[in-house]
């Protein structure tokens, strides 16, 4: 099928893009098109207007400093993933991006587009929530910051208003006492995951664990983050604490069934991946400390 | 100022039309098309470049892959208006000007990298760009390079061999020095 007719504009300033968007409540932003165009072609969406932001200058930056990584609305997944400073400052971003689709899709799809598309089976939304990041949203009436914790409200639904353009995403830097890991199970490499887990583990100078948090994608309707610290109250990572962490995680998740996996299978994957990823994040934490020393 | 503003409306349907310059394989084409014209359809129907194939039309199969400013993208996931003024390369642009096969095409021929050939244009464009970034791929890297393209016939073994062989041909006959 082909997309239904729409009027198309390709503004060359942000102000103009915001005006075009404000002028029609049924207009949609077109960034990389890697999610929107399939929806249009399948006629699951038929907006009356598309505002193509690809000609707006100054939106394709990837900037990393000691605070964190800032990604502009037109920075493609491939560019963010390949940025060495971003990888150093917050390695979880590139670790997760490696699992987003295939290289060809990453050449066009944007990281900010993926964040605001708000798909609970996508990698980047849960990473943003886990890290406590935020989005900058511009509209004709001003600019605001939306904290990741307030961004996702339903399947494919965010708190970004229809007249807003997300201009930048912010991923906080990895603290010195932390390590990260990401893993997922997909039917084929590059497909959407049946289940994915990201983890941040923090430990003190002596190597005693101080906090463990994990984020889950493709398990529930929303990107979900669970604090697993209490399973590691004794301060170490061992089989018993990992089992306790997996129990804790599953108590907070409601794995859903779809044509690809039953709820039980998803729960099983969440359990196995929780243990695997927390262990890896802990190893990463230790390795970073040793690397620093 | 907005670029690519509509210039006309279709007298039959009332749909807005845009005048767009598409730069394909070094040639500039002028087309008048609606905003919703997919790049894959503009290439095939408006320009007659039917080498770009359309399989799934939602980004999964890779048959429509073309190079945009040298990088592989899905032509079915872009509107032609969005590609205005940017350099596009389709499978038709991969042969030498005198019609001799490019290294990837030659390798597909030698290694039996195709059967029905439906998926082939997307593989050829993807691999051409892939070898530019990584001229000497391992077999694993060759697999990764083609991981986003679907083939229903070959079982991929011969395509992987073709990637490695194409790298070899390109090394033996660097671009522009082919005898
Ligand atoms: C074959 C295939 C496989 C894929 N696999 C994965 C995968 O495994 N994991 C994954 O996470 N993703 C996957 N994707 C999706 C891909 O990551 C997209 O890049 C991403 O979801 C959307 O980014 P985009 O820039 O293409 O946005 P678009 O498609 O242009 O837009 C998506 C939505 O966000 C809105 N939007 C985009 N940018 C802005 C902005 N700056 N401000 C306001 N609204 C905006 C649009 O209006 C639209 O509603 C896949 C896509 C394909 C085609
Ligand atoms: S036709 Fe474009 S990816 Fe299948
Ligand atoms: S050769 Fe037939 S689909 Fe690949």
TrEMBL record, chain A:
<keyword id="KW-0285">Flavoprotein</keyword>
<dbReference type="Pfam" id="PF00941">
    <property type="entry name" value="FAD_binding_5"/>
</dbReference>
<dbReference type="InterPro" id="IPR016167">
    <property type="entry name" value="FAD-bd_PCMH_sub1"/>
</dbReference>
<dbReference type="InterPro" id="IPR002346">
    <property type="entry name" value="Mopterin_DH_FAD-bd"/>
</dbReference>
<dbReference type="InterPro" id="IPR016166">
    <property type="entry name" value="FAD-bd_PCMH"/>
</dbReference>
<keyword id="KW-0274">FAD</keyword>
<dbReference type="InterPro" id="IPR036683">
    <property type="entry name" value="CO_DH_flav_C_dom_sf"/>
</dbReference>
<keyword id="KW-0560">Oxidoreductase</keyword>
<feature type="domain" description="FAD-binding PCMH-type">
    <location>
        <begin position="1"/>
        <end position="176"/>
    </location>
</feature>
<dbReference type="InterPro" id="IPR005107">
    <property type="entry name" value="CO_DH_flav_C"/>
</dbReference>
<protein>
    <submittedName>
        <fullName>Carbon-monoxide dehydrogenase medium subunit</fullName>
        <ecNumber>1.2.7.4</ecNumber>
    </submittedName>
</protein>
<dbReference type="InterPro" id="IPR051312">
    <property type="entry name" value="Diverse_Substr_Oxidored"/>
</dbReference>
<dbReference type="Pfam" id="PF03450">
    <property type="entry name" value="CO_deh_flav_C"/>
</dbReference>
<dbReference type="InterPro" id="IPR036318">
    <property type="entry name" value="FAD-bd_PCMH-like_sf"/>
</dbReference>
<dbReference type="GO" id="GO:0043885">
    <property type="term" value="F:anaerobic carbon-monoxide dehydrogenase activity"/>
</dbReference>
<dbReference type="InterPro" id="IPR016169">
    <property type="entry name" value="FAD-bd_PCMH_sub2"/>
</dbReference>
TrEMBL record, chain B:
<feature type="domain" description="2Fe-2S ferredoxin-type">
    <location>
        <begin position="18"/>
        <end position="94"/>
    </location>
</feature>
<keyword id="KW-0479">Metal-binding</keyword>
<dbReference type="InterPro" id="IPR002888">
    <property type="entry name" value="2Fe-2S-bd"/>
</dbReference>
<keyword id="KW-0001">2Fe-2S</keyword>
<dbReference type="Pfam" id="PF01799">
    <property type="entry name" value="Fer2_2"/>
</dbReference>
<dbReference type="InterPro" id="IPR001041">
    <property type="entry name" value="2Fe-2S_ferredoxin-type"/>
</dbReference>
<dbReference type="InterPro" id="IPR012675">
    <property type="entry name" value="Beta-grasp_dom_sf"/>
</dbReference>
<dbReference type="InterPro" id="IPR036884">
    <property type="entry name" value="2Fe-2S-bd_dom_sf"/>
</dbReference>
<dbReference type="InterPro" id="IPR006058">
    <property type="entry name" value="2Fe2S_fd_BS"/>
</dbReference>
<keyword id="KW-0411">Iron-sulfur</keyword>
<keyword id="KW-0408">Iron</keyword>
<dbReference type="InterPro" id="IPR036010">
    <property type="entry name" value="2Fe-2S_ferredoxin-like_sf"/>
</dbReference>
<keyword id="KW-0560">Oxidoreductase</keyword>
<dbReference type="InterPro" id="IPR051452">
    <property type="entry name" value="Diverse_Oxidoreductases"/>
</dbReference>
<dbReference type="Pfam" id="PF00111">
    <property type="entry name" value="Fer2"/>
</dbReference>
<protein>
    <submittedName>
        <fullName>Carbon-monoxide dehydrogenase small subunit</fullName>
        <ecNumber>1.2.7.4</ecNumber>
    </submittedName>
</protein>
<dbReference type="GO" id="GO:0043885">
    <property type="term" value="F:anaerobic carbon-monoxide dehydrogenase activity"/>
</dbReference>
């Amino acid at each position: 099928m082909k997309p239904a007719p729409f009027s198309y504009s390709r503004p060359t300033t942000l102000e103009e893009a915001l005006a075009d968007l404000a002028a029609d409540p049924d207009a949609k932003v077109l960034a990389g098109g890697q999610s929107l165009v399939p929806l249009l072609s399948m006629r699951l969406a038929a907006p009356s207007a598309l505002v193509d932001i690809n000609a707006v200058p100054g939106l394709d930056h990837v900037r990393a400093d000691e605070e964190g990584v800032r990604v502009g609305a037109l920075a493609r997944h491939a560019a963010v993933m390949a940025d060495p400073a971003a990888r150093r400052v917050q390695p979880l971003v590139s670790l997760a991006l490696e699992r987003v689709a295939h290289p060809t899709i990453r050449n066009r799809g944007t990281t900010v587009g993926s964040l605001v598309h708000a798909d609970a089976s996508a990698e980047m939304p849960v990473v943003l929530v886990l890290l406590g990041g935020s989005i900058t949203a511009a509209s004709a009436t001003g600019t605001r910051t939306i904290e990741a914790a307030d961004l996702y409200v339903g399947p494919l639904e965010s708190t970004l208003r229809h007249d807003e353009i997300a201009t930048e995403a912010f991923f906080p830097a990895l603290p010195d006492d932390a390590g990260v890991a990401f893993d997922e199970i997909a039917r084929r490499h590059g497909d959407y995951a049946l289940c994915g887990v990201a983890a941040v583990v923090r430990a003190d100078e002596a190597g005693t664990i101080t906090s463990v948090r994990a984020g889950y994608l493709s398990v529930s309707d929303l990107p979900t983050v669970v604090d697993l610290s209490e399973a590691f109250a004794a301060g170490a990572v061992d089989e018993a604490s990992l089992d306790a962490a997996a129990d804790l995680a599953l108590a907070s998740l409601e794995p859903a069934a779809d044509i690809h996996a039953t709820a039980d299978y998803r729960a099983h994957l969440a359990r196995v991946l929780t243990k695997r990823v927390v262990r890896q994040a802990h190893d990463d934490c230790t390795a970073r400390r040793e690397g620093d020393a | 100022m907005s670029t690519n503003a509509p210039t006309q409306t279709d007298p039959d349907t009332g749909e807005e039309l845009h005048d767009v310059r598409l730069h394909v394989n070094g040639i500039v084409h002028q087309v008048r098309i609606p905003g919703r014209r997919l790049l894959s359809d503009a290439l095939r129907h408006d320009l007659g470049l039917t080498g770009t194939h359309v399989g799934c039309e939602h980004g999964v199969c890779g048959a429509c892959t073309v190079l945009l400013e040298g990088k592989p993208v899905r032509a079915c996931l872009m509107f032609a208006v969005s590609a205005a003024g940017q350099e596009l390369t389709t499978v038709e642009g991969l042969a030498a000007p005198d019609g001799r096969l490019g290294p990837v095409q030659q390798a597909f021929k030698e290694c039996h990298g195709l059967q029905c050939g439906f998926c082939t244009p997307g593989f050829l464009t993807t691999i051409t760009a892939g070898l530019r970034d990584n001229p000497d791929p391992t077999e694993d890297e060759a697999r990764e390079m083609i991981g986003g393209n679907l083939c229903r016939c070959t079982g991929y073994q011969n395509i992987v061999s073709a990637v490695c062989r194409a790298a070899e041909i390109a090394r033996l006959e660097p671009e522009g020095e082919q005898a």
